[in-house]
């Protein structure tokens, strides 16, 4: 079992307790890592967070194929060696987890939704603001 790296990453432990779950991230919509598990490392977490932010943006655009404007709730990537799931975790925040091919991906997704429901507003990421002074 992988322990979280940062103090505010404790909520990721709930997801990591499932068999064959290998990593988890909490990211802001603009691709910044808020929390990560040790299994990812800082460079990998930063790279994955940026990619996921772009992927989510692309997925929202793909929703334009549907007859009514949709709200993207979940993204699932299916690889030959495993799965990566990403869900909304509050306004401007996403929870992402990776699991091996033998994991119960439905259970991983369910646990992720449970964690988000339990955390509520604490998982919201405010948009970044310009750090300059007002004129």
TrEMBL record:
<dbReference type="Pfam" id="PF03259">
    <property type="entry name" value="Robl_LC7"/>
</dbReference>
<dbReference type="InterPro" id="IPR053141">
    <property type="entry name" value="Mycobact_SerProt_Inhib_Rv3364c"/>
</dbReference>
<dbReference type="InterPro" id="IPR004942">
    <property type="entry name" value="Roadblock/LAMTOR2_dom"/>
</dbReference>
<protein>
    <submittedName>
        <fullName>Predicted regulator of Ras-like GTPase activity, Roadblock/LC7/MglB family</fullName>
    </submittedName>
</protein>
<feature type="domain" description="Roadblock/LAMTOR2">
    <location>
        <begin position="9"/>
        <end position="99"/>
    </location>
</feature>
